[in-house]
Amino acid sequence: PRQARGQSRLAGPRRAIEQKMPERLAAFSRRIDYDIQPLDDIALADGLHTLAMQYQQVNRREEAERAIRDALAILDRYPQSEALMRISVRTTALKLVALRGDWAASEAFGRQNLDERRALLGPDDVRLAVDWNNLAATYLRRGRFGLAEAAYGEASRLMALDPKAPESRQAWLRAGRSVSYAGLGRYDEAERE
Fold first, then answer.
1. Predicted confidence (pLDDT) at residue 165 exceeds the cutoff of 70
2. Lowest pLDDT segment from 20-24, 53-57, 114-118
3. At 16, is the pLDDT very low, low, confident or very high (cuts 50, 70, 90)?
4. Which sign does the torsion angle of CA 150, 153, 154, 155 carry?
5. Model pTM above 0.70
6. Separation between Cα atoms, residue 128 and residue 175, nearest integer Å
7. Which of 31, 92, 94, 183 has the most CB atoms lying inside 10 A of its own CB?
């Protein structure tokens, strides 16, 4: 009974609030039109990237690719200051085009990421391992086993420079390298890897 009385006491004010809500939302919306400045480019690009990842998760690839193209178009206007964000957006682009089997585009995005991150951080930065790995996986899918083996080897070399890197990452790299060796007909090396 006490709980029922408490609920009934709130029912009147709650109803009044709900009735006034459309009016308040309309007023708030009008204020937004005048008071809030447009989002800056970088925030917009970041939002588009997040949207693309959400679209990807629900298998709306066309929308995801459109959001990625728009984000990259914005980020390309900031070649120096937004390099790492551009690399992150391109990594998502690489995955999206790979999902539709466009390995040439996937390779192009992977190469751009590697080149830009290497220019930004130097050739021996551990963070390049992810780009080498992505490029190696693309080479492997394209049947370019020699390039895949070399890229997996470079990813493994860089990953070994990081004392905090889990051994499981090296295991994945060795597995990719093993498949590359098998593709080259170098079965003894594939088995050792």
1. yes
2. 20-24
3. low
4. positive
5. yes
6. 19
7. 94
| 8 A C-beta contact, residue 173 and residue 155 | yes
CA distance 169 to 37: 44
Query: C-alpha angle 12/18/20, rounded to 5°?
Result: 105
**Do 53 and 63 form a contact (C-beta atoms < 8 A)?**
no
DSSP state of 165: S
Residue indicated by tokens 């990081």 = 162
Given a contact cutoff of 8 angstroms between Cβ atoms, the answer to whether 176 and 148 are in contact is: yes
Structure tokens at 64: 């995801």
Provide the token pair at 75: 């980020």
Cβ 139 vs Cβ 147: under 8 Å: yes
Closest CA to 116 of 83, 162, 69: 83
Report pLDDT digits (tens) over 90-113: 999 999 999 999 999 999 999 999
In angstroms, rounded to a whole number, what is the distance separating the alpha carbons of residues 189 and 115?
Answer: 29
Residue with tokens 């708030």: 28
Q: Give first-to-last CA distance, the chain, whole Å.
A: 72
Asked if residue 68 has pLDDT above 50, the reply is yes
* Over residues 158-172, mean pLDDT: 91
Give percent helix, percent strand, percent coil of the chain, each to the nearest 5: 80, 0, 20
